[in-house]
């Protein structure tokens, strides 16, 4: 058996899986989005009609879609940068020469990353309970009046953002730690000899040296955050008054609860579009 | 002074980070109603495993635990085989358009998995795989990330070693199985942990494809329980512990290998 034939046999199973269960469905999704595929088509495929861009037009007229889009952008636009800032701060702390027990702290900060999101979302749901939750009880000691974190449309998404920062910051912190360690120590020594302050060193050495890492971290964080789903599903059901309804949740509800699969596919494609645009903007920002 | 400030911040953040997890464990061991009394208790007055008992005996959580093990275990084993074969070929075997296919796959990483979920459901429904373990396992058997991880590692295996084996008359499959795979053990361990954890933690796809409660994996079973037993704080915490603790322990035991995987993704990405 020659090398080429062997290679084809080696990649065929994995490529078949990726094609069949991922790439072909993605393309099929585009086709699905221009049909009125609904529960009647599910029963009998002959009930399907091609309706062009009607699903997209419907969506753009639907206030619920705009609500879900704005919610998702709010969640990713606040939660993403917050995660990056917290993780950079913690990476610098854990990397500081004066820090003790570094491996222990790194492990602790990373632990939430590996936990099951559904499990910890349930835990946080109780931490946020207006009467019995530990958060309000703690704030009560400081004489802050009780807040219904998940029941008040003004706070519900912010509460989910805090959970997400807690869950995710350890991951980006590890990436920043590795990047910080790769900055040559001589740069800092030279700066100190020239009398640069700690803040100046941070601004003129650390930040520029980290810029490729920022782009990578920014892109993967944004892609992850734009796919918000389990947290609202478990904690709020998308409420109160749709304050935590995300695009993926809208897709799930339309597609798998009401079986309006053509309509849901259009939501999925608009999500894809949003992710593409956000990714491109970040790549562009790096070059600028 | 600076040293005190740095370490104090580290300790405060660490407390904030572990507090929800410790409270989860503590509340799961409290007698019924104790997690919601005033003034609040941080530790159970009398630790009890009654809620775990109830989960296993009355809520069928033993079944969900087994389902999660079967699904995550199968995905891990199958993905090790498929991803390592493909990753090896992309790293070491010469064939036409190899690098173009590989770059195409890497570019496809930005496509969110949810985009394909609707047609995937219809495809699996047409072949009667909805509500079966296979419906969860098949789509995760090979992943672009897995192929990428393996390929990056295998690039460092010297070509001379493989050519020498070829001259000795070893077949391509034998080279892969007896020479390459033993050398790749570190990356295989990393990939195995990654795949097991992501399969164990996965929620949306199992929620969609598993319709019968006897097939639910743990996250789906927990989400389902929230709807019915939301008042039962201690019971809910026990269900979270059952779901979260296995992966947390796995991470604590094997964290070095896990973190190695993240770094391959980030540095080369």
Explain what this protein looks like in three dimensions:
The complex is a heterodimer of chains A (288) and B (269). With 288 residues, chain A is mainly α. Chain A has one domain: MetI-like (MetI-like fold, Orthogonal Bundle). Helices cover 75% and strands 0% of the residues of chain A. Chain A has helices at 3-32, 39-43, 54-61, 63-95, 102-114, 117-127, 134-141, 156-181, 185-193, 198-209, 211-226, 230-235, 247-257, 261-287. The longest helix of chain A has 33 residues, at 63-95. The two termini of chain B are 39 Å apart. Chain B folds into 2 domains: 1-48, no CATH class; 53-268, MetI-like (MetI-like fold), CATH 1.10.3720. Chain B has 13 helices and no strands. Chain B is globular and about 75 Å long. In chain B, helix 12 runs antiparallel to helix 13 (233-268). At the A-B interface, helix 1, helix 4, helix 5, helix 6 and helix 8 of A face helix 1, helix 3, helix 4, helix 5 and helix 9 of B.
């Amino acid at each position: 058996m020659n090398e080429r034939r062997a290679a084809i046999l080696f990649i065929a199973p994995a490529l078949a899986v990726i094609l069949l269960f991922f790439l072909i469905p993605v393309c099929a999704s585009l086709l699905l989005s221009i049909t009125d595929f609904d529960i009647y088509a599910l029963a009998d495929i002959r009930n399907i009609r091609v309706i062009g861009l009607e699903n997209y037009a419907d969506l753009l007229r639907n206030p619920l879609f705009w609500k879900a889009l704005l919610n998702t952008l709010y969640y990713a636009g606040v939660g993403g940068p917050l995660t990056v800032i917290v993780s950079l701060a913690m990476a610098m702390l854990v990397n500081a020469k004066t820090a003790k027990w570094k491996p222990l702290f790194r492990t602790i900060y990373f632990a939430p990353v590996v936990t099951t999101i559904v499990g910890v979302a349930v835990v946080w749901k109780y931490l946020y309970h207006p009467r019995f939750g530990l958060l309000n009880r703690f704030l009560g000691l400081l004489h802050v009046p009780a807040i219904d974190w998940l029941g008040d449309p003004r706070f519900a998404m912010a509460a989910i953002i805090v959970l997400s920062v807690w869950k995710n910051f350890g991951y980006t912190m590890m990436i920043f730690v590795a990047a910080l360690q790769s900055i040559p120590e001589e740069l800092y020594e030279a700066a100190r000899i020239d009398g640069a302050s700690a803040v100046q060193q941070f601004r003129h050495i650390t930040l520029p040296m980290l810029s490729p890492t920022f782009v990578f971290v920014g892109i993967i964080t944004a892609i992850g955050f734009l796919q918000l789903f389990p947290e609202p599903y478990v904690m709020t059901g998308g409420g109160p008054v749709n304050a935590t309804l995300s695009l993926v949740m809208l897709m799930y509800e339309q597609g798998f609860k009401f079986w309006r699969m053509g309509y849901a596919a259009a939501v999925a494609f608009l999500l894809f579009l949003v992710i593409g645009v956000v990714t491109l903007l970040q790549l562009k920002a790096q070059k600028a | 002074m600076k040293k005190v400030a740095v370490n104090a911040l580290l300790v405060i953040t660490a407390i904030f980070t572990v507090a929800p997890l410790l409270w989860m464990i503590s509340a799961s061991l409290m007698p019924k109603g104790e997690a919601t009394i005033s003034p609040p208790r941080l530790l159970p007055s009398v630790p009890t495993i009654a809620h775990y008992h109830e989960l296993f005996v009355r809520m069928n959580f033993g079944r969900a635990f087994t389902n999660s093990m079967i699904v995550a275990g199968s995905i891990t084993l199958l993905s090790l085989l498929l991803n390592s074969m493909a990753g090896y070929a992309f790293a070491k075997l010469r064939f036409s358009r190899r690098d173009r296919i590989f770059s195409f796959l890497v570019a496809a990483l930005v496509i969110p998995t949810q985009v394909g979920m609707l047609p995937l459901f219809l495809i699996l429904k047409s072949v009667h795989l909805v509500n079966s373990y296979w419906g969860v396992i098949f789509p995760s058997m090979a992943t672009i990330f897995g192929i990428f991880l393996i390929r990056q590692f295998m690039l460092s295996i010297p070509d001379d070693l493989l050519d020498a084996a070829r001259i000795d008359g070893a077949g391509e499959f034998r080279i892969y199985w007896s020479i390459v795979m033993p050398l790749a053990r570190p990356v295989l361990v990393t990939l195995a942990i990654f795949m097991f954890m992501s399969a164990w933690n996965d929620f949306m796809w199992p929620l969609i494809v598993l319709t019968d409660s006897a097939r639910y994996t743990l996250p789906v079973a927990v989400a389902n329980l929230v709807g019915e037993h939301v008042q039962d704080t201690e019971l809910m915490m026990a269900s979270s512990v059952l779901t979260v603790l296995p992966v947390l322990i796995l991470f604590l035991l094997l964290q070095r290998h896990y973190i190695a995987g993240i770094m391959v993704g980030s540095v080369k990405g």
